[in-house]
Amino acid sequence: MTKRILIIDDEAKLRGLLARIIQLEGFEVLEAGDIRSGLKILEKTDVDIVLCDVKLPDGNGVETAGTIKTRYPHIEVILLTAYGNIADGVQAIKNGAFDYITKGDDNSRIIPLIYKAAEKVDLNKRLNSLEKQLGKKYSFDHIIGRSKRFQETVTLAKKVAPTDTSVLLLGETGTGKEVFAQAIHLAGRRNSKSFVAVNCSAFSKDLLESEMFGHKAGAYTGALKDKKGLFEEAHNGTIFLDEIGEMAMDLQAKLLRVLESGEFIKVGDSKITKVDVRVIAATNRNLEEEIKNGTFRSDLFYRLSAFQINIPALRERKEDIKPLAESFALSIGLKIGKKIKGLSPEYVTTLENNYWQGNIRELKNVIERSVILTDSEELDTGTLPYELTQKKASAGSPLSAFAMNSVEKLHIQKVLNYTRGNKAEAARLLEMGIATLYRKIEEYKLNQNFPG
Ligand SMILES: Nc1ncnc2c1ncn2[C@@H]1O[C@H](COP(=O)(O)OP(=O)(O)OP(=O)(O)O)[C@@H](O)[C@H]1O
């Protein structure tokens, strides 16, 4: 495919000349006279290579090379440096530029260099699609968490990874069950084959059966063609069955058969299909309870639970909150082009005191919000959602929030928020004496800053 090249240079004559030389080679060329209009073009157009001058009316090309690489990692940047200024070129490469050429005396270098950069762009694209095929590419090296509790979990998962044993991952929502499933797959002998994930709660019973096992044409209305199921897609690889507690009983029986013999029958088929698939299942439900309630088959549970891994909730491993938050802040910052250097101590404490019902997923969302809102390179509590800074005091467990004094504290705070800090009005509404209110504000260290 024709590569598209953007030239950012304020010298119109030189820019035009360069554009013509490059166009003659069959490349498509766009031109910009300053950084701002160059970046605007990148926002709207798919560009492969940028040629960028160093001295521009609105900034420096060496820094711009870094900005472009951060925002658009697949683009290759070539810097046009002034004669005798190699230092700029070297710095640009440090910032992620592909290479540099000295203006004027290097005209014969430019075309071969563009071809080389074009090859690199193709490679970037191939790598990108490979990474996509591998899913979110979580290996054990990418899993963050140094706490003892978490490390024990990782050690267990690493031990089972190279075997072919089925694994049952248990943990609250957002604790990283899918991340672990991927890491186990990648560390196992099936890692060059597919990892297929299916969320059992996302489909109705009939649809889930046809998703998992496939169907023959005419099996039911709307089944116009034969359809391969996810078990077949995962042949020789791994299937991850998320929310297995939601699976209907008769499908559970079918799943047990696959686990035992690798065999199943497609919907509407008469013959057996055989696959070789490793099964990793996950749930946030208590399956033993489900068995008692008659909604989960005990034989399937025993088959699956031969190897159980409990992933601890985030609140049970507070030491991991800071490194996780730092890593998310950095990567989200890079994605949206903001440099985040760290988190304020108060910010970290607030995060550590939160209950994190949604675990790492919730933490990631909170950090994303902060990175978007922040105007500084250090994230501070001002960027946290209001309820998080308020929750600080009642943190611990959801139950502790129901202890009498916790309830009183929350209630007084709510009323104070309502009266925007007017204590006389708050005391009246609370039907308590003003002196008592002052004492309680002091005792519970209630927030007295009211915006607006
Ligand atoms: N240890 C970890 N290090 C870094 N990121 C993590 C880690 N664990 C989870 N995440 C991130 O947290 C989010 C939730 O993880 P995941 O989807 O694996 O959770 P889950 O337990 O499968 O959730 P659910 O029960 O809702 O399916 C994802 O964005 C994932 O990338």
Q: Helicity range of the residues?
A: 40-55%
Number of domains: 4
Major sheet characteristics: 5 strands, parallel
* Name of the level-1 CATH class of the largest domain: Alpha Beta
Mean pLDDT: 86
CATH superfamily of the largest domain: P-loop containing nucleotide triphosphate hydrolases
Q: From the 3D coordinates, which CATH architecture of the largest domain would you assign?
A: 3-Layer(aba) Sandwich
Question: What ranges have pLDDT less than 50 throughout 5 or more consecutive residues?
Answer: 392-402
Number of strands: 18
Put simply, the count of helices is: 19
If you consult CATH, what is the topology of the largest domain? Answer: Rossmann fold
Q: Give a list of the ligands.
A: adenosine-5'-triphosphate
GO molecular function, one term: sequence-specific DNA binding
Keywords: ATP-binding, Nucleotide-binding, Phosphoprotein, Transcription, Transcription regulation
Protein name: Regulatory protein AtoC
Pfam family, one: Response_reg
